What does this fold into?
Amino acid sequence: MPACPLLSGLAMPQISEPLSPAAAKPRFAHRHLLGIEGLKAPEIATILDLADAYVAQNRQPQKKSDRLKGRTVMNLFFENSTRTQMSFELAAKRMSADVVNMSVSSSSIKKGETLIDTAMTLNAMHPDAIVIRHSESGAVKLLSEKVNAAVLNAGDGAHEHPTQALLDALTIRRRKGALAGLTVAICGDVAHSRVARSNILLLHVMGARVRVVAPPTLLPAAIDRFGVEVATDMRSGLQGVDIVMMLRLQLERMQGSFVPSIREYFHFFGLTRDKLSHAKPDALIMHPGPMNRGVEIDSELADDIDRSVIREQVEMGVAVRMACLDLLMEYREAAGE
Amino acid sequence: MSNGRVAYLNARLIDPATGLDVMGALLTEDERIVDFGPHLFRGGAPSVGKSVDCKGLCLAPGLIDMRVQICEPGEEHKETIESAGRAALAGGVTAMVALPGTTPPIDDVSVLEFVARRAREKALAKVYCYGAITKNLEGREMTEFGLMLEAGAVAFADAGHCVADAVVLKRALEYGGVFGALLVQHPEEPTLARGGLATQGELAARLGLAGIPPQAEVIQIERDLRLLEMAGGRLHFSRVTTLDGLAAIRAAKRRGLKVTCDTAPHYFALNETAIGDYRTFAKVSPPLRGETDRQALIEGIKDGTVDAIASDHAPQDQDSKRLPFASAAFGVIGVETLLPLVLELVHNGHLSMTEALAKVTLRPAELLKLPGGRLKKGAPADLVLFDPDIPWVIQEDALLSKSKNSAFGGRPVQGKARMTVVDGRILFREGV
It folds into this structure.
């Protein structure tokens, strides 16, 4: 990882100290982080600035701060995700929070408890933050209405995955200096992707142009109302873009129901060096992971250190989640909670 | 391939693309048409190459039969690429479009390439292929449209099956739209058609045969037109047979939808009475219709609602047809009798010669984006020389198909191919 020239010239935002009760206005005026929708450009910039500072902290031998000491963070994953859960867990632990993880396999949901009852039960244990992933769109918002804790959406159905969009934005900003003015191609299964929805929202707010590239079976209906350019051919879709963001295609969707087969998908929509040659020469490749090598992306390309920032995205993920937890706790501190 | 130059002299040149119908001559060189017209060789036959005296007969683009079951691979006892190819040439058909209902079905590149290779080896009438819309023709998962198109598939069809699942058809239209693929639907609502043998009505009732309501056609067409409107893409209905179905397609075309359709000769040349006496050779899918529908079909052909006519060639051996009506297989052969049956529409005053030929040459070529189907300098020299008027009687046993299940045995017709030319090579010649 080369030293980031962009950081050196910038005034480093300070990692927050706990606010005293009824102190200054919080920098991020939201109780929860449920989605990118509704966030304004300065708020997103605040998160990214703070995350930049945490990137630096995470690269130190001594990674731990007391920022969330005494706070309890619950990771509530109704849908399996090792990577995201670990990223959130690490983020909270680096700030000295107490972290508990609950995944569906060990939960009482299996015993027939309703979602809301689960929320009420957990709420009675006084968590300060709950990180929730759920397979149904809107489920995280529903839970947020029933608990006192700050809720972080770690992905709800095909709706939003705000921390993924934020870590993508941080990765891009550190490499390209800014988001405004860039053209970003989001390629693949946009229809089922919460990553795509959050990214489209964020990139628009930050002044980037978005182009989605996919066969129509993998585009949501009314995609023309999303304010994006639409291409159904990779070569024209990647023409002149700064960023190529590949999406994961789930196995069950590539065997005839949405696309005919893996080999046909890779042939026409997989990212290869030839297709990438239509993008700008310095275009970056991103992927939210986990990758299907040989399905949506050529294996060699995924490992190309000049073009692929896929590993960097994972690093940014921890920092962004630390920044989000920090700012949501700041909000609680300001509210005296 | 080098065939040198061949001059076709003293011919009635007919080109459906331009409406040309004039006495003149045509010159081919190797596999291409290089020149034609009323003035060509006015001063006498050319000194170089061969010449053919056409004796005033019609010289037109070779027929393109856009629905042929070739049965190879899998049912070579019923038909092969070679036997179908010879039957086609004898009928003036220079290109067949093979349906994917083979065993295994043409639902991936490897089977497509097998058929293409066999056709190249036999080098008779050209063979193009449909790919299946769904894997194993099961109506569930779509096939590799993109890869099959790159391998030469001209369109997609689930052979004689209806893609019944609305989501599957919608996604196939959307996905196929990326490649400009034409999807060919069998317009018959399958639950209404289930178990049916004949068109529901008095005749089927008296014969005691399970009926299929003719509305099964329009119900499917109307649903699919809604899907087309929603999903985009290009949709073609094969074997349209009813007044209501035609009306729905006519209206959709007026609305600007990208919809086309074809029919087969037995639907305009026969009606349901042909199955009287349980004649299994007239058992087809969809079933032969009543007289009102037959006449409506002729109107549809005349006004352009029906874009193309295909034989829907479906060879069945004796074991499959010499059975009680319910047990007998569906289908009739037809590649060899397509030309005289289409010419009936001319002799009966329904269509002009160029209009009739367009349905079996130009229009199929346009629908499937094939290079032939017209007289044009530089176009492939795929030609038929035919006598439009000569009377003859169709005899099943004299047909060249391996299976003899024609619905038209004993029928007097007018018009016959005399010479068939594929890529400049004269592959069939009789009586000239």
